[in-house]
Amino acid sequence: MRPAGRAPQQVRPLTLTRHYTKHAEGSVLV
């Protein structure tokens, strides 16, 4: 068991935020 309570095979939730910065092409926040 990991400190966050996740099982070893369980992945963290993942979100992608498109257009994170206004002027950088292909900007993404992971």
Describe the structure.
With 30 residues, this protein is mainly β. It has one domain (1-30). Helices cover 0% and strands 13% of the residues. It is built from no helices and 2 strands. It has strands spanning 17-18, 28-29. Strands 1-2 form a two-stranded antiparallel sheet. The radius of gyration is 15 Å and the shape is rod-shaped. Keywords: Nucleotidyltransferase, Transferase. InterPro entries: PNPase/RNase_PH_dom_sf, Ribosomal_Su5_D2-typ_SF.
Highlighted features:
nucleotidyltransferase; 30 residues; tRNA nucleotidyltransferase activity
Strand content: 5-15%
Number of domains: 1
Instruction: Give me the side-by-side strand order of the main sheet.
Output: 1-2
Give the termini distance in whole angstroms.
24 Å
Helix content: under 10%
Cα-atom radius of gyration: 15 Å
Largest sheet: 2 strands, antiparallel
Count of beta strands: 2
Q: What secondary-structure arrangement, pairings included, does this model have?
A:
Layout: E1 17-18, E2 28-29
Antiparallel strand pairs: 1-2
Question: Quick summary of this structure?
Answer:
It is built from no helices and 2 strands. The protein is mainly β and about 30 residues long. InterPro entries: PNPase/RNase_PH_dom_sf, Ribosomal_Su5_D2-typ_SF.
